[in-house]
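Memo to structure team: turn this sequence into structure tokens by end of day. - J.P.
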Amino acid sequence: MLNKSTQNKGAAMILVVLFFIIISTTLLIGISSPISYQIKGTNEFLISKSSYNIADSQTENALYRFNKGKTDAPSDISLLGATATAVLTDIGGKKNLVVEGSKSIFDRYIKAIFTTGERISFNYGLQVGNGGLIMEGTSHILGNVYANGNIVGNGGSGWYTTYITGSAVAATLSNSTQSLSISSSSAVSTLFPIGQTITNQDIAQSFITSTTTAINQINLYIKKTGTPANAIVKIVNDNSGEPGSIIITSGILNASTVTTSSSYIPVGMSSSVTLTSGTKYWIVIDVSSNNTTNYYSLSTINNIYSSGAAKQGLFGNLMLNLSTTTLDFDLSIFVNGDLGTINNMGIGSSGTGDAWANTITNVTATGDLYCQIGFGNNKDCETTRADPVSIPYPISQANINDYQDQATTGESTSTVTISGIASRTLGPIKINGDLNLTNSAKLYITGPIYVTGNIVFSNNSKLYIDSSLGSASVALVADGVISVINSATIYGSGSPGSYVVLISNKSCTTNLNCTSNPSIKVGGAAGAVVLNALNGAITLEGSANVKAVVAKLLYMRGATRVTYESGLADMNFTSGPSGSWNKQSWKEVLGW
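Reply from structure team:
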């Protein structure tokens, strides 16, 4: 039997243990509660962060798509329970994108504004002028074609021997005529800034057309400072001597085709609209914002055009802060033209690929046929879509002049011939004479080359862009004929997106003259090359294989092939035009 003292000690021990348990429990509850809140808060933070991350990723995805030639908002994306939805608005040459990232109850929003810098974009595998496209043999084009002239194949039994795997467009109003010119070879011109300040953010010129005609192109004598964004060129009504608010038609002034030297830059109208003879209209150059370091300058002449006047200010709401100048735009307006036709070929693949022209005959298309007149086709014409209009080239004469100037900043030499096992590195350089590469010789180029004579690559010779230039492209310009023949091959630097661009300044007149006197001739192999002859013809023969073509006329025969690659849509040069879609702003916002 325990004595009383022992019983008291046991009771005390029990009290101590109970007290310890109570204190421990209290401390545990006190500690675990914040930890629980911390865990909950961390979990909510991670969910919210997931919403932000997927919105940010969708914004990056949109920028990538824009630089690959896509113009629409990306489709919704989902990852680990989070979803991102994008809404895109095009305003004044800019792309305004708002992306909602959502997971559970948490929504995060990112707003980005993208603008285009300086770059040359080849968004078609092939783009030709009023000479059109002539395809013979088993020639074919992997990609899309836009022709400001006719597209003609050679037919064939079953599936056509000449075909285009993408869509084909033959524009109406090609080969247009000049209706109005405001210019002078003797008068002194004045550079008038556009978009430098709010007082000259936009500028407008009135004119009166003398015939009832469909306007399709305006040429502006213009230059730029810095890297302004694309501008919208509009034809609007007259409202009591002021630019009105009714937009009759419009087009885009592509910043990449404008250089730091004044030159005539074509602006194609997005729709063909007939103007009324004797009626006053206004040409408005509408810039989305003003910037003291990135702006355009238009050449103007004082009081040269008696039938019109120029005004400056802020377009919209009848041009706020409007003021009148005594200067007139240096410009020309082109109207009318021929109806486009597509005939005797296959168009499209895998269920896609449309044909679009005023007249389509003897065509098998996997997509739709948009035409007003058609016969001998595998489908009826869809007549609700208006005829396509001609569009400017992706590269301007001003760009070519820039490449020549850049080449001239390097060394200068007479005719260069590289033959046999020899190899050489050139560029930038101006060659006063010819450039010949033959008999398995190798040439590595490190900058633009301007040749006043002819360029001939032949007999298994090889042309490379130097690997040090990475993904850049390099232009070779010749005043004469460029020939790539007898298994000569052209390579980029080895990095994706690197191409040699061969440009000939040689011109031709009629289609017969063009086909018999081509500016660029490619036979056999070619490779990572883009061909350009703005005012001349290009002929592809044998098994020639090139990446993209821009020419007044293209003549394909044999087993020739043009293979368009999406990388061409953001092709960068070693100097000169070299931008892409870039972010102007990128930030998180509270909501739509």
